[in-house]
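<given_protein>
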Amino acid sequence: MVFLETLLSEASFETYFTQVIIKMKNDFNFTEIYNQIRGIKDVIVVKVIDNEKLQLASNDLYNYSLLEIKYISEGNAIETAKSIKSEALKIPGLVKFEVRTKTILKIRNY
């Protein structure tokens, strides 16, 4: 029991916020894609933000969306964001997942 308490007290988690621009194929369900992003390891919250410029960039084949994502990182926030991106690109219908690294903001320590 002491080992478990020591292990838990040494673990350091930090919560981060970032914005992501995604490109999706129009013949896929957008809500399903958002939900699959929510299921990626370390992702806590995914919020879809209305963006007129991205809506204008959308066409018959592709739709663009701006997401605000909160995630947990045990170490380097950028490396965790890259890991989330690599997992996200495995989602069917998701073509592009661009993390806006300048928007990465540390929210909280645990």
